[in-house]
Amino acid sequence: MITPPSSVRRSERSRRAILRSALDLCTERGYGHVTIEAIAADAGVSKKTIYRWWPSKGAVLLEAFTDALIDATPFVDTGDIGADLRSHVAGAVKLLSVPPFGPAYAGILSELHHDDRLAQQLREQLVDPRVEEAIGRLRSAQDQGQIPPGADLPLAVEMLYGPVYYRHVLRKPVQDEETIATLVDHVLRSLRAPGY
Amino acid sequence: MITPPSSVRRSERSRRAILRSALDLCTERGYGHVTIEAIAADAGVSKKTIYRWWPSKGAVLLEAFTDALIDATPFVDTGDIGADLRSHVAGAVKLLSVPPFGPAYAGILSELHHDDRLAQQLREQLVDPRVEEAIGRLRSAQDQGQIPPGADLPLAVEMLYGPVYYRHVLRKPVQDEETIATLVDHVLRSLRAPGY
DNA sequence: CGGAAACGGAACGTACCGTGTCGTGTCGTT
DNA sequence: AACGACACGACACGGTACGTTCCGTTTCCG
Questions:
Q1: Which nucleotides of D are covered by protein (CB under 7 A)?
Q2: What does the alpha-carbon distance between residue A43 and residue A19 come to, in Å, rounded to a whole number?
């Protein structure tokens, strides 16, 4: 089933109700117990309507998650790269710690390995743009001399986000502010220190 | 349902057939399409027998995965902490890149968020012991003066494994040896460099 | 105003779930 | 050596969610 029949006659009312119900049910029952049938019933919508516009439960929740995430963890530029990275990572960690976003994102991640299209969509719509933003912020710090010219910025981003994903998928307790600060410090140090 | 009736009369033959079929089916169809019914049929075993010893599909594959992983990524001590970490991380990355282990582990991770017991089991049986091993190896390097005394070793482990998990769950291309070497270098640098 | 298309509702067959029952075989116990 | 307990394979069961189809209604574009 292909995602969009691309029509202007689509009911915005139904779309909103579906996305809202998907997130609500994710909070109430957890991602694993959210079903298309339950979403349809809760949203007062026909199953056919959901299947017409989304290929799967994961796609519905990805759209809902993306919509809700957009302005949750902005990349600000106060001139202090350390402070900006700390607040950015803290924002992401905090968002993942509250329902429905934490469980929803975990559920979405869990679908990626048997849903190629969803994986591509997540990377293109969510991950890659944000990684680019992060690299942009690091480059700006580079211009201001806070980071050496030759630093491996993409690696730095993975070293920052890696532990966040690591703890999230393994369901380890989320990092507190102090741990995040230590993490950011280490990443920045690793960029500044000479090779050994 | 509780996992083991703890009996000595258990059929080792059935157990092996079940674990083997679980991994085989994971290779052939992918984790999402592996079902208890399919495992039972493939292994020539009654469903009841599977449910008697394992609470879920995830638990079966966790046992199969653990059995197969044990000696895949050992912690050796050649005296060179950089070389040892590189080979260890490379081993983990390589293992995750081949079926059925990559898909199986991804599937297991995907179950964690709606299966508290499986999450606990994975951490206790797989993750925590290996983290302790890694910390032990780092501490040994500390004793040899390759790492400063006050270094945050648990954080170092998360900085090493974080990017591996990050790429695995997002299904980004796996790291090559050079990237892994760069990652290890950065982590070691971050431990050695002074705070800023 | 006419028709195309999205809509809600209901029903369908299929797949897999987790459980129950039954007869068989095998292994500890005495 | 005989018993008895228990794991085993097999099969059947009700339940849930899947993804699809049909129908009659509503909505909006032209």
A1: 6-12, 16-22, 27-29
A2: 9
Which pLDDT score is estimated for A133?
Answer: 94
Token readout for A16 is: 């909103």
| DSSP code of residue A149 | T
Cβ-Cβ contacts under 8 Å, A58 against chain B: none
Q: Which residues 127-166 of A have a C-beta within 8 angstroms of B?
A: 127, 152, 155, 158-159, 161-166
Best residue in A169, A184, A188 for a mutation probing chain B (most B CBs within 10 Å):
A169
User: Which chain A residue's Cα is nearest to B179?
Assistant: A155
Exposed / middle / buried, residue B71 (Cβ in 10 Å: 0-12, 13-18, 19+)? exposed
- Tell whether A109 lies on the interface with B, counting CB pairs under 8 A: yes
Residue range B176-193, pLDDT digits in tens: 999 999 999 999 999 998
| Range list of H helices, B44-127 | 47-53, 57-69, 81-96, 101-111, 116-122
pLDDT of A20 higher than 80: yes
Closest nucleotide to the alpha carbon of A35, via C1'? D17
d(CA B40, CA B46): 6
pLDDT one-digit tens code per residue, B134-166: 999 999 999 999 999 999 999 999 999 999 999
For the question of whether the overall pTM of this predicted structure is more than 0.70, the answer is yes
pLDDT (tens digit, 9 = 90+) per residue, A144-173?
A: 999 999 999 999 999 999 999 999 999 999
* C1' (C5) to CA (A6) span, angstroms: 12
Q: A186 exposed, middle or buried (CB, 10 Å; 0-12, 13-18, 19+)?
A: buried
Q: Which of residues 89-108 of A touch strand C (CB under 7 A)?
A: none
- Which domains are assigned to chain A? 12-66 (1.10.10.60), 72-192 (1.10.357.10)
